[in-house]
Specification:
This is Nitroreductase domain-containing protein. The protein has 328 residues and is of the alpha+beta class. The protein is 48% helix and 12% strand. It contains 13 helices and 6 strands. The chain has a 4-stranded antiparallel beta sheet with strand order 2-3-5-4, sandwiched between helices. The protein has a two-stranded antiparallel ribbon with strand order 1-6.
Amino acid sequence: MRDRIVTLIRNNIFVVWFRLLVEIYFEYLQLAKHLGAVRLKKNKRKLEADIIIRSHAIEKGLSMVKPRPGFGEKKVSDLIQLLHYYYNKFGSSNFLTLVIPILESYFEFNRNQNSFNNELWLKFEEIRGRLSLEVTDYVGGIIWIEKEDTLNSLNQGFPRVASSRYSIRDFSDQKIDMELIYKALEIARKSPSACNRQPWRVYVYRNEKKKKDLLKWQGNKGFIDNIDTVIIVSCSLNSFFINEKHQAYIDGGLYSMTLLYALHSMGLGTIPMTMAMMHSKRKDLYTHFGLQQDEVPIVMIGVGALKDKYPVAISDRKKINEYLTVFE
């Protein structure tokens, strides 16, 4: 009897609202102190994240269908200034070995396109010289992938499958058989979730107008024309309780990565696109694109056919020892 009363009290709507407000308050305090947008230039890790975002934007530009010679000069100039600031405040760091090769590739591209900005290059050379980094183990910019090599990798075990997956922005105009999407979704069914609740919902958009409207809403430009299919993964909050208010993003993230690998295993190209939007924009998902009010968006995935040869952003990763802690 006592347990039943306790359960009734805990699940009372006013009690739940109060408990939720308490949780949100402490979450607000954490976000207010540690979110990247707060005191960005005074925190080494926050500033590094900002630099990575800016440099990756340049790298993505290089992997577009037809990069415009001289693109992004203002962004590159701002990034170089930020590197100077970083060096003056925090000194040299191996983290910057992820950034320097991208800028080197950017200048090489423009040199080959007869659109070389020598003044900007000299500013880059100055900071590169000050950093005195050994970047031989890192690469940046783009590489060209052969479709045949990608398809062959799919039969060489999971490590090779995982390493051969890239985010693609230059798709073939070939149409995708919906049966391949179904097969990938079937593979993704095995994704783990908390207590096997499987809270994900999947929306597949193949109608041309709906697809174009959705991609325009998301905001990506320069590579959307040949995306054959758009997939949105969302998760229902109805599946979780007050101590699990973020579990939807965890379960949804697990499912989304499984789906990306599954689509890749079908020989399809993919590009995950952010759904991290403010409410003022996110509400369009419910009014125009079919999501239900109890769902939170996790990721948008563009799917397309592979060209015989296509460029991808290298997007080199940190070494394991840069983020690993082992307790023995």
